[in-house]
Each structure stands twice: as C-alpha cells, then as structure tokens.
Amino acid sequence: MEVGNEAMMGLVLQIAHGCFQDRLHWALGISDRSDASSPPLEIQFADSTKNGANTPSAMRTDSAAMLESVASNSDKLESNAAVPAPLVWEDADVAGMQRSLWAQKTRTARIPVPDWDTVVPKIPSDLYRRPLRIRWSRAVVGYQPILGPAWIKCLRVFEQEAHQNRVFEESVFWVVTRSLKCYYCMGHCEMLMEVGGLSQGAIARRTQALESGDWSRFSPEERTAFAFAKKLTEFPTLLNGQDRQSILDLFGEVRALDLIWWTCRCQFMTKVSDAFQLQLESENVFSE
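RESULT FIELD:
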C-alpha cells in the first residue's frame, strides 16, 4: 500500500522519536515498574520565543575544563590516566570508511528531497535565516511542516541551554554513526567539526583514531563518553549502573544528562537519514 511521501515521513519521524525515547529510558535506568500510588509530577514549562531561537541559556559551570580541552586543534591530547581496553569495531577499516563516505555522495535517495522554493511557503517564516542546504532538514520540514519544525525547535533549545563544545559533541555523534554505519550523518559530523574549528588534517587524525579503536590520545572524559555512546547505540539494554556512574563521576549530573540527551538525539537523526537513504552533500552545508 502506498501512503505518500508526507505520511511516510511522518511515520519515520514517529519511529525515530520512539528510538530516541527508548534510549533515554535505558540510559537513565528508569524502572519499568510503575508506582500507582505516586501522583504525576506537577510540571510547568517556561515560556520561550517562537521556534526556540532565543531561549534563555542555562548556566553550565561543571566540567568546563573538559569542554575547553576538546576545542583544541592539536592532535596531541595524551593523558596520564589509565587507558581502557581498546573499543574496536570488528570491521574497522580507515580506507573503507572514507570510501563509504564518498559513496554517500552518489547514491540515490528513496524519497525526492524538496527544493528550497517548495519548502519555504510551508514553514514558519522565521525558522531559517537563509536558504536551507541540508537535505535531511529540507526533507523533514518539507514533508512535515508542523512536526518537522517542532523537532528543530527541540534541537535549538538544547543547543541554547547546554552549550556543548562542538568538537566534543560531534565526536560523540561520530561514534554513534560509526556503530550504525550511517555515513550520511558521519559526513555531517565531520562538516560540523570543521565549523567547530578543526582543520581538515585534524579532523582526519581524530576520525582515524576513533576508527582504529585505540582512543589513548583522547582525554579520560572523551574516552568515557565515547564508550558510553557506543554501548548505548549497540547494546542499550545492557547499560548498567556502573556505566551511568562512570559519566556522573567525570561530568557531574548536569553535563552527564547533556551527554545522555545528545547521544539519544543522535539515534533519531540517523534513523531518518538511513530510512530515506539521503545523499550526502558535497560541500559543507553548515558553513556560513
């Protein structure tokens, strides 16, 4: 039965959001057993501007040194901390990874990606400041002009509140994309690392080290975050209290929750791009 591109996009977004919520459930260790005697929490959300563009930023004072350390362009991030056992992919292949990235630029999408002139009349006028070059976003908001912008707003609110370091968060996302072999999103991770200040050479060294599974050049905080993201992606039901405690010890409660939310968000993004087999853009679509 054919349902049409709009309905199919809505279905995929709902499934992807289910993956996002499931990962949150497992990462936070929420019990499946409900307590009927406990009333629901009284929660009231603060007002925000349309599309979340100017949402007030929350204060982030913990783990500031770690967030600054990963902003460096240097490829010398050695640490005296004990190095954990290598976390490897069985099919680790640096050259093959690059071939897979290149192949993403020539494949045919399973759904036509609307052009900007088609999209712009359907969406809120202040959602984007300039024509949108990202195929993922254009497809999502083009086929679901209400549901799509709602997710975009969610991402913007998180960005405004968390202020994660760009290189750090995209390295975590890279680990997720590698675990899922989602090379479209992997390409975007590398584009955003460049936006975050890394040179092409530094990006290559960083991703090659991630691919090799020998993460000894990264800080203890980064290695712990990468290992957590990898396990949450590949074996979410096996996460345990020790896994959660490891990120709490290094990041504190607020930053640990940021890391969990971000890693779960990555699951959403990859599900959409893989479902529609989107073609990777040739240029950096995130640069100004």
